[in-house]
Write a structure and sequence with these properties.
The complex is a heterodimer of chains A (119) and B (110). Chain A is mainly beta and 119 residues long. Chain A is built from no helices and 11 strands. Chain A starts with a strand and ends with a strand. In chain A, 38% of the residues are buried. The chains are: A mainly beta (119), B mainly beta (110).
């Protein structure tokens, strides 16, 4: 069965950096685009970033563009999110999400990892 | 990348139907077939319920259906059950590998 397990969250000071990771299993990781989606406490879902199946293409949401980098290692079936210059408004649960095969959809979600930006 | 507009809340009695709207623009909802819907129970990860406007993934009850007209997509839950009480989010592809979510709708089963 598809499993996506996030790690690396925690409390970080404003302006600092944090790296999230997602370990994927139960499917051929290198065949799927992967996303990060976040949800601030008590708020709605916000799309953060996508990386194509082969890493050749990346795209970011406006609120994080220039501060966040998505990457993947298909040999290890892992997805990463490097977050720099963190702000209070980046506080959220971050979900690792699989993109659908041949279509634009978020078909499997990890359990999420909390990132808190606070001094 | 503006969020799609959903009503904050919707409700219905068990057995009734509830329909949630999701309004975007011609650059997202109206421009692509890639509208999807997600159910989220408190403290849980979202779950895919509908994709490509009206397709249901395996295991999703046929009580859930989707449609689209112009820049507005809709999710209908028929025969409401207690377990359908949750937050629902729409999402649309917006071109150039960009995706956008709706503002979310809390569905209450009375």
């Amino acid at each position: 069965q598809v499993q996506l397990v996030e790690s690396g969250g925690g409390v970080v000071q404003p302006g600092k950096s944090l790296r999230l990771s997602c370990a994927a299993s139960g499917f051929t990781f290198s065949n799927y685009g992967m996303h990060w989606v976040r949800q601030a406490p008590g708020k709605g879902l916000e799309w953060v970033a996508v990386i194509w199946f082969d890493g050749s293409n990346k795209q970011y949401g406006d609120p994080v563009k220039g501060r966040i980098t998505i990457s993947r290692d298909n040999s290890r079936s892992t997805l990463d999110l490097q977050m720099n210059s963190l702000r209070a408004e980046d506080t959220a649960v971050y979900y690792c999400v699989r993109g659908g095969a041949g279509t634009n959809v978020f078909d499997y979600w990890g359990q999420g990892i909390l990132v808190t930006v606070s001094s | 990348q503006s969020a799609l507009t959903q009503p904050p809340s919707a409700s219905g009695s068990p057995g009734q139907s509830v329909t949630i709207s999701c309004t975007g623009t011609s650059s997202d909802v109206g421009g692509y077939k890639y509208v999807s819907w997600y159910q989220q129970h408190p403290g849980k990860a979202p779950k895919l319920m509908i994709y490509e406007v009206n397709k249901r993934p395996s295991g999703v009850p046929d009580r859930f259906s989707g449609s689209k007209s112009g820049n507005t997509a809709s999710l209908t839950v028929s025969g409401l059950q207690a377990e359908d009480e949750a937050d629902y989010y729409c999402s649309s592809y917006a071109g150039s590998n960009i995706h956008v979510f709706g503002t979310g709708t809390k569905v209450t089963v009375l």
